[in-house]
Amino acid sequence: MLQIEQTNLLLEKTVNERVHHPQGEPLRSVDRIVSDFDFCTFHVSTAPEAKTTLIISLYVKCWDDLARYGARAYLDSKYGRYPEITVAAAPEQGYNYTLAVDTGALGAHGDAAYVAEAVGDIALLKRHAMAAPFEQAFARYDELAREYGNVDTYAEDVKAQLADEPVLVIKYRGHDEGIYIKPSFDRVTVIFSTVFQDETDKIFGKVFLQEFVDARKRRVQNAPQVLYSHRDAPSDIAALVPAAHNDNKGYVTLVLFPRHLLPHKREYCITHVQVFRDYFHYHIKCFKAYMHSRMRTRVKDFLKVLNRAKPDADDDDKTRKTATGRRFEQRV
């Protein structure tokens, strides 16, 4: 299976073209709107006063949820370490977050690794915005692990305290689909609510998720635990989900254990977990396209057999063909 990259390739290409622009050639104005998964949009344009400055703005549908969990401060910390990148005090109209990139100064930097890292972080603007709630949940996990590390976690009072732990909610695709993150002392639970538009998607989705479960049992025992529930929300988020049942709605639960939450693994974990829903639906669509192509190929093969079985139109009743195609006349 292919892995969906978090880097926006069009955004990365646009910035790289400016940073590595040949000297002496005139710079052209840029005004591009780039779309990404989950109703995310980038606006890339040149500054009116200097064509070497790129203005990059981000719009995400769930920005209010992300801002509540410290997305702006997290993004400021990510891009504030680059002198060539300036965070706008007020975002561009219609967008949530805006950067001004001095591509001339960045291209003149002598360290190629530094330039590549800066361009890579710019291309990961959406990923960094979506990472803020996960970072907050992981920080809360560290606090709970220190607090309850030497406590009997099966005690009723401890279980009651952990049950009341707040859940971080990100409605990243509107009210129908969201991400729910619940930290605990020994795990972080990430729940995706997803809506299947087609009846066949539900069937294929169950097959894919069952394969995740079976693969973990057979080979990848260090992978996060994957659970799936249809219609009924898991108990951790039952109070946050409307009581009305939706036959086309499913809930995918990923359980991240301490081995996934080690400091040197967290960035990798956040990068891959937050794109799980897109990865999941992408491969459902790819599988359906593959099945349809196989069906069309089989139909073509059947039509060829039927066409070979038809007699030629110019043959009369007295003319026959042998298996090798030779003709002979039938005498009465």
From TrEMBL:
Q: Which domain of life is it from?
A: Eukaryota
Which GO terms of type biological process are on file? actin filament polymerization; Arp2/3 complex-mediated actin nucleation; endocytosis
- Give the span(s) annotated as Disordered: 311-332
| Major site of localization recorded for this protein | cytoplasm
Keywords noted in UniProt: Actin-binding, Cytoplasm, Cytoskeleton
Q: Which Pfam families match?
A: P34-Arc
Q: Does the keyword tRNA-binding apply?
A: no
- Compartments reported by the entry: Cytoplasm, Cytoskeleton
The protein's GO terms of the molecular function aspect are: actin filament binding; structural constituent of cytoskeleton
Q: Which GO terms describe its cellular component?
A: Arp2/3 protein complex
For whether the record's keyword set contains Ribonucleoprotein, the answer is no
Q: What does this protein do?
A: Functions as actin-binding component of the Arp2/3 complex which is involved in regulation of actin polymerization and together with an activating nucleation-promoting factor (NPF) mediates the formation of branched actin networks.
Q: Which family is this protein grouped under?
A: Belongs to the ARPC2 family.
Subunit arrangement? Component of the Arp2/3 complex.
What PANTHER family does the annotation carry? ACTIN-RELATED PROTEIN 2_3 COMPLEX SUBUNIT 2, ARP2/3 COMPLEX 34 KDA SUBUNIT
Protein's UniProt name:
Arp2/3 complex 34 kDa subunit
